[in-house]
Amino acid sequence: MIKKVVKAIILGAPGSGKGTISERILKDFSMKHLASGDLLRSQILKGTDIGVSAKKYIDKGQLVPDNLVLQLILETVQRHKDDTWLLDGFPRTLNQAVTLDKIQPINFVINLNVPFDIIIERIKGRWIHMPSGRVYHTEFNPPKVKGIDDVTQEPLVQREDDKPETVRHRLNVYKELTQPVLDFYRKNQLLEEFTGNSTPEIWPKVRQFISTKIEPVQKTEYK
């Protein structure tokens, strides 16, 4: 059933292609992108109370506590209550999912299910422009000039935590945290899972599904 205003969530492990799939959804369906990471970075740059508190944890390499992330996301979704949006990077815990559900009903949840071994191989080729968070990949999304950001021409870096053993640990932690979230949305009949090894394999299925919920504004062709 086509709706005028839709609230959706996209979930996927680090390296699952969630960023690329999200960009394609936004382009073809004209949704607002509510990304928890971007929202946190914005708060930190502005020096807000939430930003100052969050930075203390991020600087120590720790996860930002539930209460801070919840406060930020709930304030954001309430500001955009009349908009169609895609929530990205949230919820990460069952508590976050349950609390969000009480404040803002969700229409559907997309989960990208990519085998961990595929993700580990994919992440090994990832390079990042740290100030902006732009992500490149030597095979799937290379910069125009090797090792250089397309926009600022500043150097790209490869993070220490993109090493295979570190990635596997992060994926296992993600699975442990996210499984209760998936179970919650599955129980509420909101979860749509898309399995595959690559974005070209998964994207057509995702687009076809969303087209049953929202009228597309365009159809972008990808190689």
UniProtKB/TrEMBL annotation:
It comes from the Eukaryota. GO terms for biological process: ADP biosynthetic process; AMP metabolic process; GTP metabolic process; ITP metabolic process. Its EC number is 2.7.4.10. It is found in: Mitochondrion matrix. GTP binds at residues 15-20, 126, 135-136, 199. Residues 126-161 form the Adenylate kinase active site lid domain. Gene3D superfamilies: P-loop containing nucleotide triphosphate hydrolases. Residues 125-162 are annotated as: LID. It is an enzyme of class 2 (transferase). Residues 35-64 are annotated as: NMPbind. AMP binds at residues 36, 41, 62-64, 89-92, 96, 159, 170. It catalyses: a ribonucleoside 5'-triphosphate + AMP = a ribonucleoside 5'-diphosphate + ADP. InterPro entries: Adenyl_kin_sub, Adenylat/UMP-CMP_kin, Adenylat_kinase_CS, Adenylate_kinase_lid-dom, ADK_active_lid_dom_sf, AK3/Ak4_mitochondrial, P-loop_NTPase. Belongs to the adenylate kinase family. AK3 subfamily. Consists of three domains, a large central CORE domain and two small peripheral domains, NMPbind and LID, which undergo movements during catalysis. The LID domain closes over the site of phosphoryl transfer upon GTP binding. Assembling and dissambling the active center during each catalytic cycle provides an effective means to prevent GTP hydrolysis. Involved in maintaining the homeostasis of cellular nucleotides by catalyzing the interconversion of nucleoside phosphates. Has GTP:AMP phosphotransferase and ITP:AMP phosphotransferase activities. Monomer. This is GTP:AMP phosphotransferase, mitochondrial. It comes from Octopus bimaculoides (California two-spotted octopus).
